[in-house]
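Example record

The entry below shows one chain as it appears in the dataset: sequence first, then structure tokens.
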Amino acid sequence: MYRGLKERLEQDGVVCAEGYLFELERRGYLQAGSFVPEVALENPEVLLQLHRDFWHAGSDVMVAFTYNGHREKLRIIGKENLLQPLNRQALHLAKTVAIEAEKLHGRERALTAGNISNTNIYNPGDKQSEKSVRAMFDEMVGWAADEGVDYMIAETLYYHGEARIALESIKSAGLPAVVTHGLMAENVLWDEMSVEESCKRLEDLGADVVGMNCFRGPRTMMPYLRRIRESVRCPVAALPVTYRTTEEHPTFFNLPDPGNTADLPLRTTFPTALDSLAATRYELAEWARQAYDTGIRYLGICCGNTPVHTRSVAEALGRKTPASRYSPDMSKQFLFGDDPTLAQHIAGRSEKA
């Protein structure tokens, strides 16, 4: 049986792994700074494996890695000629793994999602910028529709106006739309609208799922998620970053690390020195349970995500994933285990380890 996005949301919810950008940078296949997903063309086998790893960990969705794969980003690095090949290849790779789940593993086929994201050129009231943004979204949504995606994600949108254009583009292609905002540290969108008001308006315009992703960790995203949940009738999406953002520093862009002893080559810990500021898998699992209890049914992790984080979210919702076979079991660990066959003269020294 194959269930679409709507059916899964109505039944047991959706786990959606994002975070491809940071994870592929850590693996050495993407450049921090420009953050353009050339990996889809240069190292497709690496992207295929990451899709497989996220599915193995429990993601219901293979998100085509076209975040930042739009015309403006490729223009900046002088590679606009790669725009369509990159998009189509990323879409093909995501769908390949989505189908593998069923064909090779005998499990329910994963969903395939197309992806559009913040363009960084939208300027409220500037008709030319609006026209350019719409053209960028239209071409990417068109390729995604051609490749047969189940739905589109429009994400990390910090202007309501840009989110509206993204939604209109998706709906004009006849696809379901998940629209999520990235909320900066000023706590309102950059066209001076609250995130919950924007989500309500997007729902009224036909968005199937609204919510938030990126920029904020669980602690500083959750209050706004509650407001969104109270403001809309449709399903709500929540995909925080893995980092311990605070009220003083609500996004990961300016997180300080007082324990750092190295000279950082960049102005901030973002994006390459956030390691020591990460939440544990257990904190993310606790957040996922809390979010689900709040009524949020589309859950995942954005930047900083790894397969183990996705597995923790899925297991927090009561799921058993293929990767759950390898979930921690310390019973046979030589120092902390309680298996009676362990050498007790060793296990008994755990407090002195």
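Notes for this example: The chain has a mean pLDDT of 97. The chain is about 40% helix and 10% strand.
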